[in-house]
Amino acid sequence: MIRYSDEEGFIKPIGIKFREGQDKNIRLPKVAVLVFSRHLYYDVIEKFPCKEVGYISSSNYERNIYILKYKNTEITFTMAGVSGPYISTDIEDLNKQGVEKFIIFGNCGVLDSSIEDCSIIIPTKAFRDEGTSYHYLEESDDIEVNPKYIDEFIELLKEYNFDYRLGYTWTTDAFYRETKEKIDYFKSKGAITVEMEGSVIASVCKRKNLDYFTFYYAGDNLDSTEWEERSLSGLSNIDKKKEVMILALDFALKLIKE
C-alpha cells in the first residue's frame, strides 16, 4: 500500500548542482529537452554549441546540464533519468532552476506489432503500474497524458513526414516483470506501448502545474510469441533516431515562441 499525502514534501527540491566556477544563481532557459538515449545526448553535445552550467547527481552517477544553442535559440538540455523516481526528481530540480516547460522523449516497447520500428507514438493516457506517481496524485488506475500540444506536435510530424500513432501507454517499474499475463491485460485496456516514466511525468507535472510533452519512438516488440529486440539497442537504426532528436529540438522552438 502507498500512503498518499497532499502536503508538500519535507525535503524540498534544491535545483541543480554546480562545479567550481559555475554560476550558482543561473536561471535556466524556460523550455527543456530531456532525452533518455545517451547516444542522442552525446550526439547533440558534439554537433551544437552547448555550455555546461551544472549537473544533476545521485549517489552513483552524474548528468551534466547544458544550455544548448539551437538555431540561435537557447534551450535547456540534459539526459533524462530512467525510471519514475529519477525523472520525477529531474523535473523538480530543473523547475526549481527556472524550467517551466518540458519535452521528454525516448524509446518504448510496443504492444502492437504493426507499429513500425522507430515510428513515433504519442501517449494520451497512461496506466499507473508504478509507484512514484502515487506520491504525487491520489490513487487511480490511469492518468491523462499530454493535455496540451498534441495538435502542434502532429503538425510538425506531418512536416517531417513521420509515421505516428496516438494511444494509451502502460508505465511499469519492472521491465523483467512484463509478463504475458500483464501484456495481454494492458493490451485489452487499449495500451499500445510500455515504458517506465509516462504516468510519472504526467503526475508530477499535473501536481506542479507545469507544461510538458512526452512522446516515444518505437523499439522492442512485445506483441509476439517471443520478445523481439528490434532497435532497442541504442545504436540500432541510429540515423532515424537522430532525426527524432532534431524533431524534438524543433518542437522546443515552437514552445518557446508560443
Concise account of the structure shown:
This protein has helices at residues 38-47, 84-96, 150-160, 180-188, 198-208, 238-257; strands spanning 31-35, 50-57, 62-70, 73-79, 101-110, 120-129, 142-144, 164-172, 191-195, 211-221.
Instruction: Categorize the overall geometry.
Output: globular
The portion of residues assigned to helices is: 25-40%
Q: In which order are the strands of the major sheet placed?
A: 5-9-8-6-10
Tell me the radius of gyration.
Answer: 18 Å
CATH topology: Rossmann fold
Number of domains in the coordinates?
1
What is the CATH homologous superfamily assignment? Answer: Nucleoside phosphorylase domain
Let me know the average pLDDT: 96
Label the structural class.
alpha/beta
Number of strands: 10
CATH class: Alpha Beta
**How much of the polypeptide forms β-strand, as a percent range?**
25-35%
The residue ranges in which pLDDT falls below 50 over 5 or more consecutive positions are: none
Terminal residue distance: 42 Å
Give the topology.
Elements: E1 31-35, H1 38-47, E2 50-57, E3 62-70, E4 73-79, H2 84-96, E5 101-110, E6 120-129, E7 142-144, H3 150-160, E8 164-172, H4 180-188, E9 191-195, H5 198-208, E10 211-221, H6 238-257
Parallel strand pairs: 1-4, 1-5, 5-10, 6-8, 8-9
Antiparallel strand pairs: 2-3, 3-4, 5-9, 6-7, 6-10
Features:
5-stranded mixed β-barrel; globular; alpha/beta; 29% helix; Rossmann fold; 30% strand; 258 residues; 6 helices
